[in-house]
Amino acid sequence: MSDMNTAMVEKYRSNFLKEVEANVEEGQWVKMCMQCGVCSGSCPLGPHWPHPPQEIFMMIRAGKRDEVLTSESMWLCTSCYNCIVRCPRELPITHIMHGLASYAKKLGLTPAKQPTAEFSQIFWDNMMKKGRVNELKLGLSLYFKDGFGQGIKNAMANQKLGMNMMKAKRMSAAEFFGGHGVKDISGLQKMIKKAEEIEAAKLEAN
User: Fold this and answer.
1) What does the buried/exposed string (b/e) look like for 137-149 if buried means 16 or more CB atoms within 10 Å of the residue's CB?
2) pTM for the full model?
């Protein structure tokens, strides 16, 4: 457990709900959940969630900090927004789930080998190099993340997709040697760094 996580546990030991309200996007809405289960029934991945949204909210209110922050549930959200549209209390469920995932990541509690978390990090690292996503390098990073042999198998299995992307000019060999980028990449990187510093300061203050 990191020093930061230990400090958070001590500070919020008596009330995990307060911790969520202070550190998770839209976390103040968790206490408004009435446990109807409409969100789970509306989710296309509902049967695959270890803990559906209303259960996550119940666990937060019950103080089950470790179970919530190490759950894979938040990482399964596809941002379809069905849950928000159908929630009778109009809770921003999608935002809360993404907020919980983001907070867990900051605390170093991301589940090991979680595909969505891995993709998010690879996508972010790719985008931050030039300010725009290099789709060829993104695909290669994803194909080969589990080793060279598996990468070859993935590439062969998806060669038709790759050819279609090239025909649609969504991917080209030129991207391998650099590709397009924003005009002021250093400015973008400085802006992102400043935003991360502000967010870190906010966490410290809370």
Assistant:
1) bbbbbbbeeeeee
2) 0.70
